[in-house]
Amino acid sequence: MQPVGRFAPSPTGPLHFGSLLAALASYLDIRARKGRWLVRIEDLDPPREQPGASTHILKTLEAFGLCWDGDVVYQSQRHSLYQEALGQLRQLNLTYPCNCSRKQLRTRGAQGYDGYCLQHPPASLDNCAFRVTHPEGTQFFADRIQGRREYQWQGHQGDFVIFRRDDLFAYQLAVVVDDAEQGITDILRGSDLIDETPHQLLLQSHLGYAQPSYAHIPVITNAEGQKLSKQNLAPAISGHERQHLLLKALRLLGQNPPTELEAATTEELLQWAIVHWHIARVPTVLSLPQGEE
Ligand SMILES: [Zn+2]
Predict the structure, then answer these.
(1) Name one GO biological process term (predicted).
(2) 220 C-alpha vs ligand 1 centroid, how far in Å?
């Protein structure tokens, strides 16, 4: 089976270095196995989006030579698919309405969710979210970079939102529906999303979808373990600067590009990186030494 991977940014701002790292790693991991690499814009949350950000992100990917297959998919145009999946889950009784506000959850001291709306079903569906029941017990998956990940679920703490009170489809539902619909076999993304994976695995099983493989690259932190402030990448940066950033990204991903490549073009760099890609060399943690932020 030909592997299919994807890069799925939210258009909340221009592409930054951490996202470039994720896009590059996913691209190399797929191209090294002669697979298809897709781009999906996750524009589900209009208030958080920045006008022009999608175009900016796509131009930046192109400038770095990260060319995708097929058409770019926009989540904002796929609401009917998400609606259908929500209907399926409701029919199967795997989701229930919840009108708890954040404040109510805080006041009750809920860790995750406390199951309140299962005991006290909302009188009407107006202003309701939908939660999926996350069964109690142990859940685990094997991450290709981070290794075995294990989760313990108690009570209703794991019950998660797939449709929001503000009438928007939640990330969890859209991402699972899209990955299945696009035939994604290999998900490689930043480790800030690793703890979303168990919910996504559960949804895939509820909806009868195939389960892709998962790999999470580390999020870059400084020497104190803080997440780096976002360094934006303008699409217009000079060719030289692009090569420098690609080399830096390859080094951070543990791929050890030889020094001869300092003079290479973007295309030559990517060619080298595809041929020499080893996911086993990607570190599980990435912290930059002081002064190199
Ligand atoms: Zn509730």
Answers:
(1) glutamyl-tRNA aminoacylation
(2) 35
